[in-house]
Amino acid sequence: xxxxxxxxxxxxxxxxxxxxxxxxxxxxxxxxxxxxxxxxxxxxxxxxxxxxxxxxxxxxxxxxxxxxxxxxxxxxxxxxxxxxxxxxxxxxxxxxxxxxxxxxxxxxxxxxxxxxxxxxxxxxxxxxxxxxxxxxxxxxxxxxxxxxxxxxxxxxxxxxxxxxxxxxxxxxxxxxxxxxxxxxxxxxxxxxxxxxxxxxxxxxxxxx
Length: 208
Description:
Layout: H1 11-19, E1 28-34, H2 40-52, E2 57-63, E3 70-72, E4 79-81, H3 86-95, E5 102-105, H4 109-115, E6 120-124, E7 127-131, E8 134-139, H5 145-155, E9 159-168, H6 175-184, E10 187-192, E11 196-201
Parallel strand pairs: 1-2, 1-8, 2-5, 8-9
Antiparallel strand pairs: 3-4, 6-7, 9-11, 10-11
Helix pairs in contact: 1-2, 5-6
């Protein structure tokens, strides 16, 4: 089975997982992707976690509304539809049926941030947990500067020390603004490619 993607530098997602520095007492792994589409990013992230951290509880959230919505994708574009159809959504569910740790949330990024501001609930082995600190986040939703600023302000404080933030199509919006915000939250750039750029949280921040 081949899971398709519409970007590049997927190897930097695997690289990002490999750069995670787990802290003492951290008992779970939690990752998220905004903008799942056909699933190449989420599949790459999950496979990297499952291969790298075999001894920890792991959950991955994919956030994508599908529904063939019309929205502004880039700073200089108007709103338009981009074939994120419910047929694609059904195909994704079928392709990801072998990943019990995958949770698809059919919401926009803004709706996810409103509804899960206090964490994401998961249930395993008779126990419920609220996961509110992420090991890795891949932001591949709307690529307007405004939307990415809002996502960064929400997610950056929720990344664990040693955790990773990856941005897709980072050179299509005003990334110098994002870089300055990330410095406030104690992030450092690790590497970049044509499509993706990778940052790591270096120390606890005081902006939470």
